[in-house]
Amino acid sequence: MFNLFKNLGDLKAMRDQALAIQRQLANEEVVVEEKGVRVVITGDQKIKELSSENISNQTLVEVLNKAIRLSQEIAAKKLQEMSGGIAGFLKR
Questions:
Q1: What pTM was estimated for this model as a whole?
Q2: Cα Rg of the chain, angstroms
Q3: Cα–Cα distance between 29 and 42 in angstroms, integer?
Q4: Can you list the domains of the chain with their CATH numbers?
């Protein structure tokens, strides 16, 4: 039988877990240094630092995209950890 209050509690627990993962991602950092460019980006994809040594815009874009891709990989790993909880909730 469907128990609304139990399911709401489960949803709150999942929300709390998602918020915790979001905080963890904000504390992760990816550093990419290539071709005279240094990018520091957080796991939640916020750029903390960007520096270059007279580098073209195209090179900056390439390095930024690499940093973002790496931060997305971190986020995907965290979401995979969380997906076990969601899968168990959906089986009910």
A1: 0.56
A2: 19
A3: 4
A4: 4-90 (3.30.1310.10)
